[in-house]
């Protein structure tokens, strides 16, 4: 069991089932590395792609670190006051539209491969 799987195992239902499903889905892509960062699971290829964050109201947010650069033509991502990170919160396994999620993940992976992540820091 790796760190991310251990993290997920410590959650309670339904967050555990949702997070496990999303983890398996994301980790099934080639060259994806799951790691615990900032006390939650992050998924990397060349740079950060997305992360899973349990919400206080019992959901799980799948958030894309470069959400503002994705097309969001599926209408899945919500920014909720954030400028860069866009995500979707799931409250049950039945909420997950797997086909749509694959489209967003594919776009995020292509972005990661083709456009270098540029950290903009204020000086």
Question: Which helices and strands occur, and which strands form pairs?
Answer:
Elements: H1 3-9, H2 15-27, E1 33-37, E2 40-44, E3 48-54, E4 60-64, E5 86-90, H3 98-114
Antiparallel strand pairs: 1-2, 2-3, 3-4, 4-5
Helix pairs in contact: 1-2
Quickly describe the structure.
The protein has 3 helices and 5 strands. It has helices spanning 3-9, 15-27, 98-114; strands at residues 33-37, 40-44, 48-54, 60-64, 86-90.
Please explain how this structure is put together.
With 123 residues, this protein is of the alpha+beta class. It has one domain (3-114): Alpha-Beta Complex (Aspartate Aminotransferase, domain 1). Helix content is 30%, strand content 22%. It is built from three helices and five strands. It has a five-stranded antiparallel β-sheet. Helix 1 (3-9) packs antiparallel against helix 2. The chain is globular and about 35 Å long. The model has no long low-confidence stretch (mean pLDDT 92).
